[in-house]
Structures are given as structure tokens and as C-alpha cells.
Specification:
Shape: globular
Strand content: 15-25%
Structural class: alpha/beta
Largest sheet: 9 strands, mixed
Length: 278
């Protein structure tokens, strides 16, 4: 009996480093955290798995996105990382600051890159480049991250952002890229962005406007309304802006879908699978 029982003993650290992991505080800044899905090792797997990052939106549903991508990870032999940027950091009433990349002493892009570097050290992951998807507020973060770090992205999937930053130096940040270098200490590298496969994805019924037309709130700037009334219209505006700058876009308008990031994941997975298998 003793031998039978001992055969079931597992190594705790290894057990929680495979499949759906625990939630870890980020080494770069322990106000932030992350979880992953790591497939069990199979014969023929790469030494280091490709990395997919799913950036949550305002609802902070990081764990749900991770769980929804588990089957994709097993099928495609990749790791999914879901960062968590809690609401109320510094400003207790804040819901939105991560979407705009920089807030006071926080650079959310640097937090994500620090998490990727940490994950690369701790797990069998190739984090030199990674695929990034975000929906709604995560879509806002994703396209702004693309402007800053195209060299780190193997692909970018931009889902239904309510507010856009157009590639337009005549518009102030964050409506456009005017003052971008002053804001971030670097210029936009359009040639590098053109090398990143880009998907834009939105539901054809994503037409409610109460959340994205809210003058006077902290995530509003006058001029947003000129990019369109709905998320569908706004994403088409961003697509047209990208294409005018020579950036190719795969535009997925999903039939019968409203504002639902989970329902968009099959299209996102298909896009990322194409990138990984190309």
C-alpha cells in the first residue's frame, strides 16, 4: 500500500506549471499578475513553444480567456499567456488606464514585456516574438502596443476597440500619433509594422453605442466621434487608416455576433494558426 500511495505523489511546482497554471504576481511589478495554459509535453514538440498573449478588456476576464484557449493550445502546441492589469491601480476609480499604455509612473507595455521575459525564463516558451490579441479595451491596448513594439510581435489581432489611435501626426495622442515621440521616447517604425500580420475582428451586430460615446468621462477625447458611431464603423476606419499606410489587414466581420470577445476567439485562433503554420 505504501508503494501504491507513493506512486501518486507529484511535484507541486511541476504540476502547477502544466495545463492551466496558477496566477503569478509579475516580477517586474507585483501590482500586476498573469496566468498561462501550457500543454503537456508530446513527442515532436518544439523545445520552446510559440507564445500567444490574450490581453483582457475592461472586465478583466483574463482567466476566462486563458481557459477558452486551452484547446487551441493543445491543438497548435503553443502557450497562452493572459496578463491581468487590475482596475484601480493608483486611481481607485480607474477602469481604463492600461488601454492607453502610459499612466503616471506605469508603462503597461513595459509591464507586459517584463511578464513575457519572466515567462520565457520559467516556462518552455519562445518569447522573442509573440502573437497578441485583445478585444474591446484589449483591442485598444493591442493596436497601440503594435505602434510601440512591432519588432516583438509575430502577429497582432485587434478586436472591436471602442476608441482608436490613428496613424495621423496631425491628431494629438491618443486620437492620433501627434507627439508620439514626446510621449514615449521613440518614433513609430512603419516599415516594421508593415511586417506584422494584422487581423481586425468585430461582430456585425456590435452596434450599441452607450459605452463608446460618453463625453466627459476619463476615456473620452473630443474627435473620437469622427471615427464612427459604432465599433464596426470605428474598426473599418482603423482598417482604412492602416491600409493607407501600406499595412495589410485581414478584416473579419463575424455574422450574428454583438460585443462578445469569447465568441471572437475561433476567428482569432484561425488567424494565429495560419501565422504559425505559414
Amino acid at each position: 500500500m505504501a508503494e501504491a500511495s507513493s506512486a501518486k505523489v507529484r511535484d507541486t511546482s511541476s504540476f502547477y506549471a502544466t495545463g492551466a497554471t496558477s496566477v503569478f504576481a509579475a516580477r517586474i511589478d507585483q501590482r500586476f499578475s498573469y496566468c498561462l495554459y501550457v500543454p503537456g509535453r508530446r513527442d515532436g514538440d518544439p523545445e520552446r513553444y510559440p507564445l500567444v498573449v490574450i490581453q483582457h478588456g475592461t472586465g478583466r476576464t483574463a482567466g476566462q480567456y486563458r481557459d477558452a484557449m486551452a484547446g487551441f493550445c493543445e491543438e497548435q502546441r503553443c502557450v497562452v499567456l493572459a496578463p491581468l492589469f487590475p482596475a484601480g491601480i493608483i486611481d481607485q476609480d480607474d477602469l481604463h488606464n492600461f488601454k492607453f499604455i502610459a499612466y503616471r509612473d506605469i508603462r503597461f507595455d513595459h509591464v507586459l514585456l517584463g511578464i513575457v521575459d519572466e515567462v520565457t525564463e520559467k516556462f518552455p516558451v519562445d518569447g522573442s516574438t509573440f502573437m497578441l490579441h485583445g478585444f474591446s479595451g484589449g483591442g485598444q491596448f493591442t493596436h497601440r502596443f503594435l505602434y510601440l513594439h512591432p519588432d516583438r510581435l509575430a502577429a497582432a489581432s485587434i478586436g472591436a476597440p471602442g476608441r482608436l489611435t490613428l496613424l495621423d501626426d496631425s491628431l494629438p495622442w491618443w486620437l492620433g500619433t501627434g507627439g508620439f515621440a514626446d510621449e514615449f521616447g521613440t518614433d513609430i517604425d512603419l516599415d516594421a509594422i508593415r511586417r506584422v500580420p494584422v487581423q481586425m475582428v468585430v461582430g456585425e451586430n456590435d452596434v450599441e453605442t452607450w459605452e463608446i460615446n460618453n463625453p466627459g468621462e476619463s476615456n473620452w477625447m473630443d474627435g473620437v466621434e469622427q471615427t464612427g458611431s459604432t465599433r464596426v464603423e470605428r474598426l473599418r476606419t482603423l482598417r482604412d487608416n492602416f491600409e493607407a499606410h501600406g499595412i495589410s489587414v485581414r478584416f473579419d466581420l463575424i455574422p450574428d455576433m454583438a460585443h462578445n470577445g469569447m465568441l471572437a476567439l475561433p476567428r482569432v485562433g484561425a488567424f494565429f494558426a495560419d501565422v504559425m503554420n505559414s
